[in-house]
User: Fold this.
Amino acid sequence: MWLLFSAGGVVAALVLPVLLVLFGVAIPLGWVKAPDYPQLLATLRNPLTRLALLGVCALALVHAAHRLRFTVEHALRLRRQDPIIATVCYGGAIAGAAAAAYLLFVAL
Amino acid sequence: MISPLEARYYRRPIPLLWWARRRSYLTFMVRELSSVFVALFVVELLLLVRAVGGGPAAYERFLGTMAEPAMIVLNVVALAFVLLHAVTFANLTPRAMVVRVRRYRVPPRVVLAGVYFGWLVVTLFLAWLVVG
Assistant:
């Protein structure tokens, strides 16, 4: 669990900022031209991209779930509700990872 | 008088907003909350993948949604939190990891510089991959 958590933290720190700058700010504001559809489709359909993105999404979600679990428990003093909170957090992360697998390998 | 038994089971009550009392606690909470925005952006990324899978029209619609002013504001806020996450996590690395070369410990500063260099390389590679 600890290993997944720190791996997710590293991956999120390395990969997410640049993607967020591009897709969240630079492209919507027109600073950077949006990638052409065929080009983006080809990049995403590359098996390496699919695997890498699945790994990034799953690990980052597990990381966030783990952190959120303890943050909610500590901040709001809900230690006793740990089984419920843990189930919701990790369940959400697993559901997100499953959705990522479906979107990347089936629907794309 | 409090009996020893009572003293043993006494717990100091902690106020619900204990983390708002001190700056360092508050920083801790803000850093922990960055994970919410990490998860949020993962969802946005997956919506992008879904839009691309849905064809050119769906992709255009996705770009339109991302260009809404509210979305841009949300993403700027998310970016601040994701950057906070990235910087705090990078700064943690030399403390969590001791790198040795032939029994000599690599100085933490060098490890940190390596982390930031790796970050730069990944960033440039991904930017090239996306923008072409």
In short: The longest strand of chain B covers residues 100-101. The radius of gyration of chain B is 23 Å.
